[in-house]
Amino acid sequence: MGETTQAPPPSTAEAGPSTGTAAEGSKKQPVVIICIGMAGSGKTTFMQRLNSHLHSRNTPPYILNLDPAVSHMPYSANIDIRDTVDYKEVMKQYNLGPNGGILTALNLFTTKFDQVLGYVEKRAEDVEYILVDTPGQIEIFTWSASGAIITDAIASSLPTVVAYVVDTPRTTAPATFMSNMLYACSILYKTRLPFIIVFNKTDIQPHDFAIDWMKDFEAYQAALNDSGRNEHGESSYMNSLMSSMCLVLEEFYNNLRAVGVSAMTGEGMRGFFEAVEEARQEYERDYKPELDRLASERAAKTEADKKAQLERLMKDMNVSDQSAGGSSRRRGGGGGGDNPFGPYPMNEREDRYYDEEGADDIDEEEQDAIRRQEEEEEEAAHAEELGALDVDEPEIGGMPRSGPNGSRGEAWPRPV
């Protein structure tokens, strides 16, 4: 999968002051940080800052790049989608535009993502953090089937956190802020993973105003009123809508982690990793048990389906065996030729010998006794009929007249 060669993590002897931390981190699974953000939010620069910060702590991360259209990356990725899929060739071959080419390239890469997970799991014991960079066109990853497959596959194997990078200077307007919060809310409820909002570029614009708007509805309402009045000084329809949405998202804000960082200066990195550790605990407490429960339910359902299929198969086999055994023992079924009426009794008298599935109800000795009794009763009844008519039964060739199967019936025609 085009795994880039990278220097292995330093040994514990070379780790210096961070030896204890690295030893503790090696005992637990690494945390996967999936970085998602709008185009121009500084997501790639933020990834580079995470990479350099972790290297400074002697805990180099394992990096996956899922953006096939990026021309230059300031960091070296261990697994790069560009080594597997040629984005421009995909556009040319399938006659696609830029967004269609990125989506198709990501879909093609997803078909081999089980191999990617294999590489990641092999290095899981050697790293503390795994960083995943996503395409700049955010909707391609968050709303596509391939993005959902990749996210679910990673989250089912390792503790996973979603970091949503926000361009802080562009969020100073209440309408833009609300748009970013709605998008963050949609991603949170789509992935259901621990979520961190990262207000980037705090070296240009501090993020304090955003935290105030999230915690205090009245502060956001005041900013909205100042920016959204029409020429008559009246609140517009959009202001009323955003005011209502802010109230709706209040519960969302209360359960959300938000930090401010500067990808250029490195400010706020400590607070970000503290939020990552809290998100990791949330994953272990809430997401993982739910994942295990769903997996056990799927396994139980699969086992129940297999058992039901096996029972149906065994039942069908038993019925077939009984039908075959019963038909082979029927009267007229052998010696005298096959029964032209199938596996069922040829007359009501035989119905007492067999059950509905053609199996014998009684043994052969009882059947013979019943047959002899019936023959005697039949002969006695026939003798009574002849006595009532006062005629003698004519004989042909010394044998009494009888039907073709030895049963009493119409007399044979007299020989001329």
UniProtKB/TrEMBL annotation:
Taxonomy, superkingdom: Eukaryota
Annotated stretches, region: Disordered: 1-25, 315-416
Composition skew (Acidic residues), residue ranges: 353-367
Localization per record: Cytoplasm; Nucleus
Nucleotide-binding among keywords: yes
Keywords associated with the record: Cytoplasm, GTP-binding, Hydrolase, Nucleotide-binding, Phosphoprotein
Main location: cytoplasm
Gene Ontology MF term list: GTP binding; GTPase activity
Matching Gene3D superfamilies: P-loop containing nucleotide triphosphate hydrolases (3.40.50.300)
First-tier enzyme category under EC: hydrolase
Enzyme Commission code: 3.6.5.-
Name of a matching Pfam family: ATP_bind_1
Any single GO CC term annotated in Swiss-Prot or TrEMBL for this entry: nucleus
Compositionally biased residues, Basic and acidic residues: 368-385
UniProt similarity note: Belongs to the GPN-loop GTPase family.
PANTHER family documented for this protein: GPN-LOOP GTPASE 1 (PTHR21231:SF8), XPA-BINDING PROTEIN 1-RELATED (PTHR21231)
Function: Small GTPase required for proper nuclear import of RNA polymerase II (RNAPII). May act at an RNAP assembly step prior to nuclear import.
Subunit structure, interactors included: Binds to RNA polymerase II.
Name of protein: GPN-loop GTPase
Source species: Kwoniella bestiolae CBS 10118
Lineage, top ranks: Eukaryota, Fungi, Dikarya, Basidiomycota, Agaricomycotina
